[in-house]
Design a protein that fits this description.
Largest sheet: 17 strands, mixed
Number of strands: 36
Number of domains: 3
Shape: flat
Radius of gyration: 24 Å
Strand content: over 45%
Number of helices: 1
């Protein structure tokens, strides 16, 4: 079967695809920030091949991921991305792909997924085609599953994502560190996992998980930073007023909220309890049957989801929540806990004054631009452009460093074709990384590195 989806390009995104080794039924299409096509079918051959061409001709760049799974076989995968200096309008992506996986005689199921994601000033958009394949009717009798064999359902997490109007919108969070196998998927599609990269857009309600011997560091616009240890899964819940939320499905996370905006708070939802935190550093651990809070600095609240009891936990204390309620506070070794996170959370000593930073140099951003930064004392300037020859945009910035925050004004200059201006609030994550906390005037970039 060969087809094109969508029939007309969506924000410049379109997939031409072909599936051999299977008989496919009629597709079901669902529009949105991501256009989804789902297909049911049956296996018919001794190999399953998914091939085609991914086209993207708008925005700053695009990523194509293809995965083919057959029961009893290693998955077949394809990944490619394109982020040209001047965007895809001038240098479009037209990427062929082909993935083949053998189908053993005893295989009873298979699936495939083609995901094309584009990056734009307004966030990410995508086109996804996925299929689930079984055996033809009358073949491969199913085996009854006894009560004792039924898997236990995962613990329910009360996210804000069901029916939320913000699902699929750019959260402003970005990966600032990745190691090993890290995956991301939208909330409404459990089969839509794709590989995460430093340029990946993290939307509200996205699920993020780390594999064995893998980790991820994620930074938010409100200056919150958290680290995921191996075999951890989280949900990025949309904020409510000035309260940020995060759901920990399983695993361990380390969170630093010391730089969060003055009036901001954070809730971490787990299976047995909810942690309420502000201006502190904590570790949360989730197994599905127990939820653990450890406070490294400051103080945090811990509320049982089964009894409603809420207690304060101080630095150096940990508390465990189960279906029976909350345990008594228990001491733990802060130094040992911090040591266990060192390989996942690299730190840098912060200078005591603006002059302690040395930001002068050539920087790049995920908007495809190059930025020439000059710092003198607490004053900072830059000139940025999308291309040194014939840029689409070029701008200047002037700001003041206060601690690890830069308060600045920016304006486009007529070397480029765009004429915008506005205000920037930037956070100095390290001497080699700056992130945007707030932006006005339609500024495109959010992360700068060198």
């Amino acid at each position: 079967m060969a087809d094109t989806f969508p029939a007309e390009p969506f924000n410049g995104l379109q997939l031409e695809y072909s599936v051999s080794g299977a008989s496919l039924g009629s597709p079901r299409d669902e529009p949105g920030f991501t256009f989804y096509r789902s297909i049911e079918g049956t296996l018919t051959g001794d190999t399953l091949t998914v091939s085609g061409v991914a086209t993207a001709d708008g925005g700053w760049g695009a990523t194509i991921d293809v995965e083919v799974n057959v029961e009893g076989q290693e998955p077949g995968r394809f990944h490619q991305e394109k982020f040209p200096k001047n965007g895809l309008a001038e240098d479009p992506m037209r990427q062929p792909f082909s993935v083949t996986v053998p189908v053993p005689p005893d295989a009873k199921s298979a699936s495939f997924r083609i995901s094309l994601e584009g990056s734009y000033n307004a966030g990410s958009r995508g086109v996804v085609v996925e299929g689930n394949l079984g055996l033809p009717a009358g073949t491969g009798p199913s085996e009854p599953v006894g009560e004792e064999q039924k898997p236990k359902p995962p613990a329910e997490i009360d996210t804000c994502c069901e029916g939320c109007e913000h699902v699929g919108e750019d959260s402003g969070a970005r990966f600032s560190g990745l190691s090993g196998e890290v995956s991301i998927r939208p909330h409404n599609n459990e089969r839509a996992w794709r590989g995460a990269g430093l340029k990946s857009i993290i939307n509200w309600c996205d699920h993020i998980r780390t594999g064995e011997e893998s980790s991820a560091i994620i930074s938010f616009n409100d200056m919150t930073t958290f680290t995921m240890k191996p075999e951890t899964e989280i949900i990025v819940d949309p904020p409510q007023e000035r309260q940020s939320k995060l759901s920990l499905v399983t695993g361990k996370i380390w969170m630093n909220l010391k730089k969060m905006w003055k009036d901001g708070t954070m809730e971490v939802q787990m299976s047995q309890a909810v942690a309420g935190i502000k201006g502190t550093t904590i570790v949360c651990e989730e197994t599905g049957s127990s939820s653990v809070l450890k406070v490294l600095e400051g103080q945090a609240s811990f509320r049982s989801r089964s009894t409603g009891e809420e207690r304060l936990v101080d630095a150096g204390e940990m508390m465990i929540a189960t279906t029976e309620g909350l345990s008594e506070p228990q001491p733990f070794d802060i130094e040992s806990e911090n040591e266990s996170w060192k390989e996942y959370s690299p730190t840098e000593e912060r200078p005591s004054s603006p002059e302690g930073w040395d930001l002068t140099g050539v920087w790049t951003s995920e908007d495809g631009g190059k930025y020439y930064i000059r710092q003198i004392g607490s004053t900072i300037w830059w000139y940025g452009e999308s291309d040194p020859g014939s840029p689409i945009w070029s701008n200047v910035m002037h700001g003041t460093i206060n601690g690890d925050t830069i308060d600045a004004e920016w304006a486009d200059v007529p070397k480029g074709r765009v004429m915008g201006y506005g205000i920037l609030t930037l956070h100095i994550d390290s001497s080699n990384r700056i992130t945007a906390s707030s932006k006005t005037g339609g500024f495109g970039g959010s992360v700068w590195t060198r």
